Amino acid sequence: MRFVLACVLLASLATAVLAYRKEDHEIFDLVSDLEASEGKGTTFYSWLEVPPTAPLAQINKAYRKKSIEIHPDKNPGVRGIHERFARLGVIVNILRSPEGRERYDFFYKNGVPKWRGTGYYYTRFRPGLGTVLVFLTLLTTALQYLVQMVNYSRDLNRIRQTIHDAKLAAWGPKMVQSGGKRKVKVNLGGGPRIDEDGRTVPGKVIDMIVDGDAVYIPESTGELYELSEETATPPALARTWFPTFVRGVFQSAIKGKNEPARIEGEDDEGEGSDHRSNPATDEIAAPNGTSEGRTPKQVMRAATVKAGGRRKAVKR
Question: Residue 194: phi, psi to the nearest 5?
Fold first, then answer.
C-alpha cells in the first residue's frame, strides 16, 4: 500500500514538474503548423533563414524580407497565404521576447515532446458527449474484465491447493494411491484459533472424497460434486456490465412484445388458468434446511461457498 501511495505521489510531482504552460502550447501549435505548411523539419530559424544564434537585429531584418516575400498583396489568390503571413508575425514576436525565445530554444534543442499533457489535447480536440460515453464504457468494461481475470486466477489457485491438500490427506506425502476411495477432511484456511474459553477451535474444514486423481465434495443427498480446474469461471467479455446490460434490454423488449395482452377482469387463478407445476423446473425448499428438494443449481452454489468455483455433479 505504501509503495502504491509513493508511486502516486511521484507521478503527481512529475506531472507538476513537467506541466507545460500556455506559452509552451502556443509554441507546440506553431511548430506543428509550420512543419505542415513549409515541410517536415522546418524550424523558426530555418524559415527565416537565420542561424539559431542570430541577434535580434538580424532576426528583424530577416522578418522584413520574409514578410515582403509572403505578403498577401504580393501573392493574390495563393491558397493559405494569409495564414502563413499571420504565422510569421507570431513566430517573430516569440523570438523577439527573451523569455519566449528561451522557451523555444529549449524545445529546439531537446525536441518538441510527443505527449504534451491532457490539457493540451483536450482544448484542441474537445470530445463530445458521445465520445466521452464510449471512452468510459470501454474503460469500465476493460477494468471489469481485468477484475474477472484476477478472480479467475485466484479461484484456480484455491482449487489447485484444495485438491492437493485432499490428495495429501488421503495418500500421504509420497502420494501413493491405495485402497480405493478415501474420505478426508480438508482445512480451507484460517487455521486454528483460541476462543474465549481457551479452547482450540479448528479452521474451516469440509469433508471430501478422493478417488484416484479425482476429488469430490459430498452432499447430504448422496450426490458427489467433482472439484476440478474446469469448475472455475474464466473471464469473458460477455459477462461484463455493458454486454449484460444490452442483453437485458433486448430480452425485456422481446418479452414485452411476445407477452399476450391480459384480459380485463380475468382472474389469475380462474377456471381457465393452468397452474400445474413442472417438477423438472420448480424449486421446492426442503423444510429441514438440507439439500433435499433444491435444484442442481442451488446445490452447486452451496458447494461453491465451500471450496470456490463451480462444481460438476457426479452420480454415485
Answer: -105, 125
221: which residues sit within 8 A by CB, 6+ positions away? 290, 291, 292, 299
Task: Please state, in angstroms and as integers, the Cα–Cα distance from residue 137 to each residue in 25, 70, 134, 240, following that order.
Answer: 30, 49, 5, 10
Number of CB atoms found within 10 A of residue 90's CB: 13
**Cβ neighbours of 31 (radius 10 Å):** 19
Say if CB 117 and CB 111 are below 8 A apart. no
CA–CA separation, 157 and 232 (whole Å):
10
Distance CA 274, CA 277 (A): 9
pLDDT for 15: 42
* Least confident window among 18-22, 107-111, 263-267: 263-267
pLDDT in tens, 118-139: 555 455 555 567 888 898 999 9
**Residue 141 pLDDT > 80, yes or no?**
yes
Task: Report pLDDT digits (tens) over 181-208.
Answer: 888 888 876 656 565 666 665 667 888 9
pLDDT at 261: 55
pTM of this prediction?
0.46
189-218 in b/e form (b: 16+ CB < 10 A) is eeeeeeeeeeeeeeeeebebbbeeebbbbb
List of domains in the chain: 20-126 (1.10.287.110), 127-248+292-316 (no CATH)
Asked whether residue 16 carries a pLDDT value surpassing 50, the answer given is: no
Q: Is the pLDDT of residue 294 over 60?
A: no
Output phi, psi for 227, to 5 deg.
-100, 115
Which residues, 6+ apart, have CB-to-CB distance to 29 below 8 Å? 124
Maximal C-alpha separation, the chain: 105
